[in-house]
Amino acid sequence: MLRRIDLRGFTGDLSEVLPRPETPTGGPVDVVRDILTAVAKRGDAAVREYTSRFDGVELESLVVADAELAAAMERIEPDVQAALELAADRIAAYHQAQMPADVMVEQPGVLIRGMHRAVERAACYVPGGRAVYPSTVLMTAVPARVAGVEQIVVCVPPGPDGKVPDIVLAAAKIAGAHEVVSVGGAQAIGAVAHGTESIRPVDVIVGPGNIYVALAKQEVAGTVGVPSSFAGPSEVVVVADGTDPADFAAVDVILQAEHGPDGLAWFVTWNDGFADEVTASIERLVADAPRRAEIESTLGASGMVVVTDSPEQAMAVSNFIAPEHLEIQTADNEALVAMVRNAGAVFCGRYAPASLGDYVAGPSHVLPTNGTARFASALTVHDFMKDVHIVFVEQEGLEAMGDAVEALAGAEGLDAHAASIRLRRGAER
What we know:
This protein is 45% helix and 16% strand. The longest helix has 21 residues.
């Protein structure tokens, strides 16, 4: 079920022996481009055609009526509603703490202000198909609301009955979404990026999805804002040394694998005997898992047990992979945290499974995948905001900077730039 790599004694380049996910090219990209082009040209008609083809659903309306959101709130169980509200509150609290302050820099004759402004309209993509994800509604729409986005659109694939599940609609209402679009896949990304007869275009698109969704977001980046991370299939690397029970590491390896294919699930240790224990535990837990097929699919394609010489080598493996989720379960978690360079989110200790981060811890569970944690971060309020710089200059400031501007403009051959300074200086004499 899991491949095993023994790195003990290995001192070479990890890229020679470790696989790392790569963004697909070729076929999927071509398919996605065709879908996006069709939606841009034919709008609602193309969206309905692709929804019928991929989801087996004939949609009358692409947008869910507001009354349906209110009705969904009445239909969900009280304990589920309470859990959604608790999660929303914790997510909001964390992201409120991230809100940037305006900055001000003063020099003689110069005042510069840096303002932060939210985008007007943002789309939050929520996966569907194999499962329902009200948690993703909260993890995307709540940060957008905290950031100050005026219009929040949630895109989610319809269920087999052509409807969005009640729990997803309830989550959208709790999160403060203004519109729910019952469309998924690359056609949803095309609709909110380019606009259709029913759906106004947005300024930013966030949220995880399958490979088609992730590639579609990359294709429309520039037309709309898209965070730099590749938010694709789920990933986890668990680093453990045997301090905690083997079942803890084993269940955390498979918890992300149950999202289904194309993900990544690795266990890394410098304790060879513990590697055997965890492997046996994984096999036992998978055999009894309700989502066994999804887990086996992920583990069969991208499941790995890596045995290293040391904690340092274990963390080098993790940094090489740059996983979406990193779990550390060792005798000295802080020492290993100090070695973290590349990871979307890190969960430390026996009481910190990644599932807490998936639902209620507070930081968004929309995290970089496919190695993009090397340069990208988790979804934050900053993904919904822009920095606007305001520059006030008095005569004293112009005089202080004028010579430098004229010299640099002259060096670049841009006379009008220099003239903009000369004319003002002359007018004051």
